[in-house]
Amino acid sequence: MLQVLYIFIPMLAAILVPFLYKSIKNIHTGWFVLAVPATLAIIYASYIAKVAKGEVFLAALPWIPSLDISVISYLDGLSLLFSLLITGIGSLVVLYSIFYLDKHKEKLHNFYVYLLLFMSAMLGVVQSDHLITLYFFWELTSISSFLLIGYWYTRDASRFGALKSMLITVGGGLMMLGGFILLYLMGGTYSIRELIVIVPDLVDHPLFTWSLVLLLFGAFTKSAQFPFYIWLPDAMEAPTPVSAYLHSATMVKAGIYLVARFTPIFAVSELWVWLVTGVGLVTLFWGSFFAVKQTDLKGILAFSTVSQLGLIMSLLGGAAVAFHVNGAADLVFKFAAFAAIFHLINHATFKGSLFMIAGIIDHETGTRDIRKLGGLMSIMPLSFTVAAIGSFSMAGLPPFNGFLSKEMFLSAMLALNEFELFGFDTWGALFPIIAWIASIFTFIYSFYFVFRTFTGQYKPEQYARKPHEAPIGMLISPMILAAFVVIIFFIPNLIGDTFVKPAVQAIQPFLYDSPSAIDIHVSAWHGLKPELFMTIGIVIIGVLLFVALPKWQGLYNLFPRSLTFNNAYDKIMHGLDVGLNRFSRLYMTGSMRHYLLYMFSGIVAIVIGTLFVKDAFSISFEGAAPVHSYEIILIIVLVIGTATTILAKSRLTAIIGLGSVGYTVALFFVIFNAPDLALTQLVIETISVALFLLAFYHLPKLGKREERMRFQLNRAIISIAVGAMVTLIALSAHSQKLIPSISKYYEETVYSLAGGGNIVNVILVDYRGFDTLFEITVLSIAGMAILAMIKLRMNRKEKAHENK
Amino acid sequence: MKTNDVILQFTAKIVFFIIFFFSIHIFMAGHYTPGGGFVGGLLTSSAIVLLVLAFDLNTVRTVLPFNYTYLTATGLLLALATAAFPMFKGKPFFTHYFDYFDLPLIGKQSLHTAMLFDGGVYLVVVGVTMTIIQTIGEDE
Predict the structure, then answer these.
(1) Which among B37, B120, B136 has the least Cβ separation from residue A691?
(2) Which residue of A has its CA nearest to B111?
(3) Long-range contacts, stretch B20-27, CB < 8 angstroms, 24+ apart
């Protein structure tokens, strides 16, 4: 129970943020917010020791018990690792944002509310053991990241990027929901744990492959895999703390998490191995190749994130192979899972620090354009050190943690090459080659990022501001992360034992009984193996290409801009915009008459059509009440009233005619023993006539056109059809009673269950209270809308008046 | 020209109270005989509308200085709170309670939480209709 509530702590704290922001002006709101992730990080840290031994923690909070939906928090190695990343890096990001965002200029309450909401959503994603709540949190991350990316909403690019990221990730999320539902249909349970246990029964199910593909759509869109990566560079319009958080540690890793979490279920499928490994590798290559083309510092980091995510993804694909092989050969594939998780941690540390440095440079110089930057090393030595550590780690150089995971990546890819199943022996030869080339480009863009910015000629006139070293508060967070980059290199096995192995056990539960059973030892010096030579090759070629960069960078211009995925997205969005606009202009004429025409003809077509298809016409006058003379008189009055309304030349006459119709209907209710309805109808008529009188003065004069209304055939047909439809329904409903009327039930239970005597009222407030609740809500909304419409118009008029 | 509507105004003042108390009666009686929050609310608004017709909007506003949007919000909250209250006791949303009590003066009476919910409906109906009438009436 408590464990579930931890997830919601940031969300609850978010409620307080606006009040703190409004009432305590001279303290930066971030200081209060910082307490939330910091506390949570400590709480989750207390689980580390037990989880490292292989224990799991489970807690449930029922939400909709009748639908078997509850929030289940499941803490094993994998989810604990992610929770720690979310809260740990979250704390650093909040700390950084305190110095990055000005408390006077920025709308901090918005920012921190979104950030805390996002934090809750992420914690929910990684801890949910229930598919539906997982989906709920998943889309919540999309929505809160939309708000975060669009935080500077006055900028067009921010809104564009926010919308793009949301459209793509929510779209993928919906497909994922489809996959979840299929899983539920196959397995009969929403619990991921339970699904893993019954995997052997699921594999041969015809829906298995569908759910696999649908689920991967969710993971690939979220983790910016090829070709869905296009939202990630645009999402860089977010404030830098957000980029550092969303794109280094959390949101984009949700897809990685999903793949890791579902590996035990889907890894037995050949398609899964191919898709995850293949897409990951393509993404790795694509991202690293195009990162060198970017000129925006955050753009480079965005593409590098894309490529690193591809790397982790391909490793997870390799980890899935372990489900297919036995004996000694599978060690390398177990290795892949270890490498994936290890690199995930490393990536969060070095990419987080790099994002923060990019933000610092932007903040201190006023530009992020790498063509303008240069020569900052002597001015910002601390930032340079941090950037160099991060970049070298990203490039895979010792003594930084990126080197270790890069080596493991290369050996895993080499191992895939030798794997003889599903045609890996033929196409698999490409894997290490692609991986190697991509690593070269990774090396180049890492150098590009750090050396273009900090070395070279210092041109002060290029900068909007006079550059100087960032305030120490802003540097604390990246320095802490950079320290981790170095520390992890020297104690990889400690990290491995506490964090990586428990997570690996969660990915490959069938292979190990406990985390300690995983026999993998990381060492910086692993002998003269092929991967070491590959690294040496990467360094040599990378340095050569980096030096010669100006000579071949023109190569990128050869790619036509019109052939990119971004362009395709733009085209589709533009086409939808224009096309749908044109379509809606076809029928949105602004004339009430037209709308009524559409509505009534639609209703008539649907209802009469259904009656025909279902063969539901039936006319029988059996059991009908006798018609009395006064009823006939009332009907005549009704007809005359209606005719007067239609034919009246003056509006007043029409209103009176309409009123008489209403009162006559009320009389009908009286005759048929419905005093409740009669009462309501009478009062409604009175009030609406009064309303008409109030509005009467303002209504435009009846125009010439209305005065001599031509006989309109189509309108006559529709009105007659509506009348016929209502009559037919009434007759058919009366003539065939397939099921006994529910009124009997109400009659019997109204006193015993609801303690009332008036069925109508008891239905309204009790049996169908939900209905009434929503009805009064709608009523209130309508009232507010009218208020807003008229008040706004009055305000505008007043303004226009003042301007004169 | 100034119209003389003393009789209308005098009658309206008296009739307003008659309709208003009748509407309260209708509202209270709703659970056993015809009536309820919706009709009760409408009747109350029609009583106010009568005043508006006899006097004018501004006079009525000084006599009944309600902010009808707040009234609507209060009604919605009351209805929602009544519906949500059972959740705190572990019962599903919208569980109603009722019991019979011996009250001084009026004797044995039944009290329902449904009545509270209906009270919310009553307030919303008065609030919304009066908001609409007032804004349209003010719109010159």
Answers:
(1) B136
(2) A755
(3) B20/B44, B20/B47, B23/B47, B26/A679, B27/B118, B27/B119, B27/B122
Dist. CA A468–CA A330, nearest whole Å: 53
Quick: pLDDT tens for A209-267: 899 999 999 999 988 888 888 888 888 888 888 888 887 777 788 899 999 999 888 88
Per residue in A460-487, is it b (16+ CB within 10 Å) or e — as a string?
Answer: eebbeeebebbeeebbbbbbbbbebbee
Phi/psi-derived region of residue A673, left when phi > 0, alpha when psi is between -120 and 50, beta in every other case: left
Which structure tokens are listed for A441?
A: 């480009």
Which chain A residues are within 8 Å of B78, Cβ to Cβ? Answer: none
Rounded Cα gap, residues A693 and A689, in angstroms: 6
In chain B, what residues touch A784 (CB-CB under 8 Å)? 69, 72, 131
Note the pTM of the prediction, 2 decimals: 0.78
Residues A142/A166, Cβ–Cβ less than 8 Å: yes
Residue type, A566: N
Residues of B in contact with A766 (CB under 8 A): 96, 114
Chain A to chain B Cβ contacts (< 8 Å):
147
Q: How many residues are recorded in chain A?
A: 804
DSSP 3-state assignment of A18?
helix
What the block records as the tokens of A775 is 């009805």
Tokens of A175: 């497909």
C-alpha angle A61/A63/A69, rounded to 5°?
Answer: 100
Chain B residues in contact with A754 (beta carbon < 8 A) = 96, 98, 112, 114
State how far residue A704 is from chain B, nearest Cα, in angstroms: 25
